[in-house]
Amino acid sequence: MDFIRCGLFGWCMEVLWTGMASVKNRDIKCMGNTSLLMFPIYGAACLFKPLARSLKGRPVILRGTVYATCIFTVEYISGKFLKKHQMCPWDYSDSRYNIDGVVRLDYAPCWFSLGLIYERMLR
Question: What average pLDDT does the segment 41-47 reach?
Answer without folding.
Answer: 95
